[in-house]
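Aim 2, interim progress: modelling of the S-adenosyl-L-homocysteine-bound target.
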Amino acid sequence: MIRLTLKPGREVSVARRHPWLFSGGVASAAGDGADGRAEVVDAGGRPLARGAYSPDSQILARLWTFDGRVPDGALFRERFAAARKLREECLPRETTGYRAVNSEGDLCPGVLVDLYGDTAVLELTTRGTEIWRPEIEAAVHDVFAPKRWTVRETGSARDLGRPSPRPSPAGRGRSVEPVEAQIPSPPGGGRGEGEGGERIPFLENGLHFLADASGGQKTGFFLDQRDNRARLRSLARGKSVLNLFSYSGAFSVAALAGGAARAIDVDSSAGALDLAREHRRANGFSAGDADFVQADVFEDVRRRAAAGERWDVVVCDPPAFAKKKADVDRAARGYKDVNRVAMALVAPGGWLLTCSCSGLVDADLFQKIVFSASVDARVAFALVARQGAGPDHPVSLDCPEGEYLKGLWLRRA
Ligand code: SAH
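Predicted structure of the complex, ligand included:
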């Protein structure tokens, strides 16, 4: 255990139960923290919180308790059981793939558990939770009883500011990423994998999908878009759908299930498009070569606009363009650019679902960027709905940084 004593006046955020303790607020430390446990006390020595110690991160500790309780196997089991209950109350039927534990949002900072049928994909996103791995695994076993699981340890590498060997899903809310401790990477950089991994079957709203758990992105599937896919499905009948940044084409499968006339997936990753092809077949849809376009979306949309194409629905769900504060301006330009061109592709009366999963671009800023794109595109849209991640991605009010996915449903006048 390590005892971290705060500088005078630096207890405010901990007193508000914010789970991140930045190194700048710490006056002194005693002990070695080899067991990954940290105790936080104020300048007068009064205990405030306990959590996981990450010596190499600017977030020196992620706080789990504020009542003196020591994080241990019993606490992990309790928190996981509470998380499980929330999913039981909120998830739709015929859905066996979902985020079972969402880090800060389930009061388990640094722990993500995605379930795909009988398989758990556990991701430990901080050095401290890596040290607790045996106890966390035991609690996953007790609460979720998966038949199989894989574990990704992405914490140490992330804390040191290095990319982990396999592209970690950092930008996409797999974990809440602190501004100060992020891995810079260009938009889309290193996120194009999708090949070679083990594929785990599961259901989402009765549709068949495969999670590419070892080679894929995130923990193998973008579970956070479930509710947007359901909405697309409900309005897709007879429509043509252009799915930009498609990854494994899950939006297209939902659209086809809703009766879409046609759906095209565009992504830069050949592996992701292979999986997209499999997803169509698994759900009984045909998969012609023309439905899968391997291209840079920024170039592809320009070609389509130049050719005068019009689509009933355009989905635009890019990777996180901003992974650290310094990226925000460049990210804003990227969002504006791709949206401006995508807007021109929407037929009158058609829909654009435009998304951002950059936590650093907040909902207000994203809406402003999209508005400004529509001014430049000279196309009028009505904002019909806002839809972010589903109830298996809860956000703690104490840690609003956990909210990252924005989806705007826009209808062209
Ligand atoms: N909408 C998807 C998730 C998209 S993740 C779903 O619901 O499953 C972002 C995707 O964008 C990744 O598959 C990545 O390969 C792709 N990508 C990143 N940069 C790109 C670019 N410039 N052009 C085309 N695809 C890109």
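The mean pLDDT is 90. The two ends are 61 Å apart (CA to CA).
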